[in-house]
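Reminder to self: tokens first, then the designed residues, so the page reads top to bottom the way the pipeline ran.
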């Protein structure tokens, strides 16, 4: 009998100290580099080449290097501006479709080395990379596969040229966080003087698997952007709009078929996609990708940039905002002013998190264990989360703001290290002791920001109505 009592006590102690296991990961999951990329949230794109001086968007490839001659060039000003306004990385067009190289490549004469700028000693790639190091921004590379200058374009010899250039870039400049492979190809070009149309088969000509492996061998953590990934996918438009439903998962095979509706698929991803390939939202602060003086009055306003922020970062994607240097080699005053205004707007709109450290109750939490308690949502710690038991695919969260406040935004984040799960949710507020539904949405993913009609309330209710597996939510903010 005595032995039995001891055993019983031991059993009870063991049960009460048994840890409730965390939810099993829901595959596919982001890689470490993809996770870091999500956390960057906002990067800039820099389009700069002979187009800046000719006024074109797509140079033909016959532009003389002599025209590339910025008069007050200062790459430090570009990167400083991006840093001060909150961007975390920069992707530079080292070579656009016209083939002109912004670094003195030893594989072509069509580069800065034959321009009068700095007597042929200039090197934009080096300067941008160094400025990125100085301001602690990550550095990325755009190297256009389509090259309208090169005589060999369209033949296997061009692949050697392209790969040599990648080797040159990845061994001389870096680290490189993202590599942008642009699928655009209009066919015709200068091509070493032939001035003709050359058709290639986009899916096979470039032999991408070999090229990607070459780059990976030099830079194992680099993320490859292309329409279909594999690291990051195109969002399907250049207007700054991620899907209102936005899965970071997609099945890459479905993207190569060239079938209609591909933009929608890229825009929204696939709920049951086989791979983690999140959408990147590339959009220009101006009408074009390159600087044109006649667009000085068309620079997007801080309010327009803020709207784009909400439809990109606010829908679980990363924003890649193009800000092109002008003919002086500076970010134009109007663009700088817009970026600063955008920063001020972000800081003002997201100034005080009304939910921070506020009491949250939940319809249930995993294993009743405080490790998964709803208070994790408002503790500002991204490593803690609220979750439910495995079979519970919905849940109600109530946040007591303590007093009546005007609210404008709800921010939610899933802990995507365990996969993307939530399929739908609603927002209600307390209005005269009754719940009033004010918003409904679908996916959350890395981050979801809902803009509300500003309204006064002291309590907010968030109902996760459906989820692929038990929800795992790490963060909730209210502004
Ligand atoms: C497109 C290109 O053709 C544009 O010139 C620009 O570089 C944009 C980001 O991608 O495919």
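Designed residues (479 positions):
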């Amino acid at each position: 009998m005595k032995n039995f009592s001891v055993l019983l006590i031991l059993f009870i102690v063991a049960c009460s100290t048994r840890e409730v296991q965390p939810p099993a990961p829901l595959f596919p999951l982001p890689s470490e580099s993809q996770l870091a990329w999500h956390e960057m949230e906002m990067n800039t794109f820099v389009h700069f080449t002979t187009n800046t001086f000719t006024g074109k968007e797509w140079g033909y490839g016959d532009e003389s290097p002599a025209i590339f001659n910025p008069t007050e060039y200062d790459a430090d000003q570009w990167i400083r501006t991006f840093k001060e306004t909150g961007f975390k990385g920069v992707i530079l067009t080292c070579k656009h479709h016209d083939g002109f190289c912004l670094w003195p490549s030893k594989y072509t004469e069509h580069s800065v080395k034959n321009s009068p700028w700095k007597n042929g000693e200039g090197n934009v790639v080096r300067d941008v990379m160094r400025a990125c190091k100085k301001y602690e921004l990550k550095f990325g590379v755009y190297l256009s596969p389509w090259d309208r200058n090169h005589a060999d374009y369209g033949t296997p010899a061009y692949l050697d040229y392209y790969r040599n250039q990648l080797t040159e870039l990845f061994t001389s400049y870096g680290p490189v966080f993202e590599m942008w492979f642009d699928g655009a190809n209009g066919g015709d070009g200068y091509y070493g003087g032939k001035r003709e149309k050359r058709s290639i088969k986009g899916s096979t000509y470039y032999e991408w698997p070999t090229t990607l492996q070459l780059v990976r061998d030099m830079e194992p953590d680099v993320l490859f952007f292309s329409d279909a990934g594999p690291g990051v996918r195109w969002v399907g438009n250049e207007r700054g709009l991620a899907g209102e439903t936005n899965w970071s998962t997609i099945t890459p095979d479905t993207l190569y078929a060239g079938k209609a509706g591909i933009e929608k698929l890229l825009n929204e991803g696939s709920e049951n996609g086989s791979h983690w390939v999140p959408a990147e939202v590339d959009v220009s602060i101006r009408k074009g990708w390159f600087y044109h003086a006649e667009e000085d009055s068309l620079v997007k306003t801080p309010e327009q940039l803020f709207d784009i922020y909400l439809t990109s970062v606010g829908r679980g994607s990363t924003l890649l905002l193009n800000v092109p240097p002008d003919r002086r080699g500076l970010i134009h005053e109007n663009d700088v002013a817009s970026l600063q205004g955008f920063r001020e707007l972000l800081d003002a709109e997201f100034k005080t998190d009304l939910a921070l450290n506020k009491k949250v109750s939940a319809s249930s939490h995993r294993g009743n264990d405080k490790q998964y308690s709803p208070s994790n949502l408002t503790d500002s710690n991204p490593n803690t989360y609220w979750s439910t038991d495995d079979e519970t695919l919905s849940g109600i969260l109530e946040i007591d703001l303590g007093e009546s406040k005007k609210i404008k935004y709800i921010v939610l984040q899933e802990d995507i290290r365990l996969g993307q799960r939530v399929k739908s949710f609603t927002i209600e507020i307390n209005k005269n002791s009754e719940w009033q539904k004010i918003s409904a949405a679908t996916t959350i993913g890395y981050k979801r920001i809902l803009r509300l009609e500003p309204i006064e309330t002291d309590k907010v209710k968030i109902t996760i109505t459906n989820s692929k597996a038990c929800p795992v939510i790490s963060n909730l903010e209210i502004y």
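Residues 57, 182, 184, 282, 289 surround beta-L-fucopyranose (CB under 6 Å).
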